[in-house]
Amino acid sequence: MGEIGIKQRVSQPKWSEETLSKFINREPLPISYKIIELNTVNPAELGNLRESIARNGGNIDVMVHPYYQTKIGSEIHPQTTEYKKMRDEFIKSSVENERPLIIFEEKGSFNLLSHRINAQKGTLYVITTTSDSPNPFFKDKFKDEKKSSSFKNCWEVILDLFKNLGVYHITVGGRYLLIHQPTNKFQKQVLENFKNVALDKKHGKEIVESGLVFDGCVGVTIGNFLLGGMDVSISPISSPSNSLKSL
């Protein structure tokens, strides 16, 4: 297996500090569904998720920061009306019908999920991440998230969890997915690293053989799943890119 750990290299505009604090400090709303944070969960609580994945043939959906936006007026890649409609309908339906969906959400925005998802029943599974990054957040296990060893290990924990749950194929969507030609030595080296780990994967092979760079939080997540031996495809519920044909 190739080395885990593709770092987030995309600079994204951010909320003003005042506006951000108003959102992060919101209390969660009462909800009719259950939220389970996979970073801290007792494995005994995952029986239903394991059964759901088995019923779905080892396939799961992952949405990375699906609600991410920046300060109004400075958005580089604004959410389209179509993206928001597809996102909201898909997440609500998946939660209520117990389809295997896992949302990657920044730790500071975790409480906002109850404001954003109006499902009437079911279970929402969440992996909390560090700020402005898809890297899974583990407060006690990896205290220095900037160290490469911590960065690498946080993905290995999630990959081990997925494999123990019987996951084989992951469809990844959310924000941001940026697909482009490689522009520097680092990106070209990443593409070389991919070549030996996805050749036996139906969907992963298509991504690798495209010769394109997958950037942004969604792209980095796709890369780490590929390097971890998973088969990966792109969800049409991604923004601003949503397929290899969207260039």
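The above is record 1. Record 2 follows with the same two-line structure.
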Amino acid sequence: MRSHLNWALAEKVLARMVPGATGYLPDEIVDYLLPDPQRLRMFDRDPAAATDDLLAYCQGRVAGLLILVTDDSFLPDQGPFFVEAENLAEFARGYPDVVDRAFLSGDTIIVSPSNGNVIILHHSEVISTIHGTPYAW
């Protein structure tokens, strides 16, 4: 059960940006047909290198206040993370020190309401961006 207080706002924003989205798992956002998919290796390599690749992918795709959902967001005492785009690199690189797991350890969703972009990194190591409707906080 998603009981953390941040879930209600995160799900409301996503549903307004991407009609039909019902949650923060990749198949709750799109029907598994990701547009223009690219490969981003997360496993069997240095986690910091994978994080750097994700950060490079995010350049020019995210802005403003972001909603981040990682596998850890679904733990009972966790929820979606809210991070300013300008602080994304610091957040992602410091994540293992706080959560004690790699930032990229499974499905990762980054929502950029100000420009309508939703970045989906699937645990199969495929990344894609959906261009939804911008959401004004």
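Helices lie at 6-17, 26-29, 47-58, 88-99.
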